[in-house]
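pasting for the record
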Amino acid sequence: MQNLKQHLNVLFGNCLSEAAGIADSNANVITASKPEFGDYQANGVMAIAKQLQTNPRELAQRVVELIDIADDSLIERVEIAGPGFINIHLRDHDLMLQGSGILQHAQALIPQSEPALRIVVDYSSPNLAKEMHVGHLRGTIIGDCLARVLEKQGHTVIRQNHVGDWGTQFGMLIAYLKEIMNGIETESHELPTRLADLEVFYRAARERFDSDPEFAETSRLSVVKLQGGDPEYLQIWHRFIDESLRHCQSVYDRLNVTLSLEDLKPESFYNDELSHIVAALEEKNLLTQSAGALCVFLPEFTGKDGDTLPVIIRKSDGAYLYATTDLAAVRYRSFDLHVDRSLYVVDARQSLHFQQVFAVARVAGLASADISLEHIAYGTMMGKDGKPFQTRAGDTIKLVELLNGACRRAFELVSGKNPDLDEDSRQAIADKVGIAAVKYADLSKNRTSDYIFDWSSMLSFEGNTAPYLMYAYARIKSILRKQEVALERYNITSIDAQEERDLLLKNLQLPEVIEMVAADCYPNLLCNYLYELAGKFMRFYEACPILKVELERRNSRLSLAALTAETLQQGLDLLGIETLEQM
């Protein structure tokens, strides 16, 4: 099923192709920038007229004549403006039919995409040596939003949590954990307590590593034994990894993120394939030895000095790097999972790394011809001082501490607005509002930009924030509860007021926004849309009485309110934000 813009693009594109005699002409239909320009504009005539070296208004006139002949039920009228723009006005009756249809079948609000694709979304990917910190927030919630959006469109989404569980630091941690388990520092039954704070455990192991050469050598030998498959070392490693994953899963559950243990594809998963990657690169004569390391040099990647930059595949000591593991993941996703798109939701600072990995994968035949490899880069969360968000002491903030702070501040806010609610109810509301505020403050920013983390703005009930949108939804649900007779069947029968029509049309445009988010992977487009939708509802509510008008108009406006509530709920759900019936 096509959304409004897709339908118009096909209709006007066909008429433009017929008028110009050029197949597959692009009508370039966009949402009208001003109400006086109609609902949509077809802007593709000028480009085709230039190609034909003909008068654009004359070509536009031929397109308009063909549109009249097509007699599409959605089109009320069209008009030519300026040098050849075509303003498109939609028919109220058809808009009301579509809105009413969605109210009967809420799943129709977001049409299924055709064709449905197989898509990997690689996101979150924390390093299991430590607890998740604020730097993991963006990759986790942006990736989860994209996975939800793509799944809602009917695509087969394969979530992949490519956690770091196999690097050099794990030799250090295993050596330290082995000491504890052997009773050198404490009794083994105290192990769960010692691991409860992974950050403290990591720092203690690091201090030993940096200060004790004998311990450092033991750590390096532990890596060799681990990667060699030593059963004892694997058992210790598993114990540490299990505890780390428990920490991660508790954060995912609290964030309402859809990752689970079933989605794990850690670095260790690809360990047995790394030697095969080297062999595949050797077969293509792509490997060069440089200072004892095996590297791939591609001419399109050069440094400031003009020298070609290496992609290091295997270090001189035989250890593999991230690039090798990522190449193995590309091959797995291409030829085992047979996916059409592979999205990597990873910090923008890794852009060169992924450009190189994707290029090597292509030239080496490790990527299928059909797979689209896409780095979904994002910027850094900054403090008010313009530096990466940290504690006053300069330490990295644990993600769970950030969430605790959000819920604590939200509780104070909710208590101030609803002092009569019992404490448990206020806490339940605060937990959802606090988590939603943190997520929305991030998702509403352009993902490629750094942004300033600001408690006061994200928890405000005014402006483009989660509390504002959650309150708008709760307010609509309160209005619907106040109706004297429950509507057995919602039906939009009148949009005479401009505010009614604007609100209905905005609701019907959600699929267009979802299509853009799915294609370009910018969740802030959905945030902006929901904020504009809530604003249009507030203007509708102020201009159009709902409960104190005649029955037919009352029921129509209640239906329009119900449609808006459904749109807000589905949109917020795609952002991973839970709505509240009462705030």
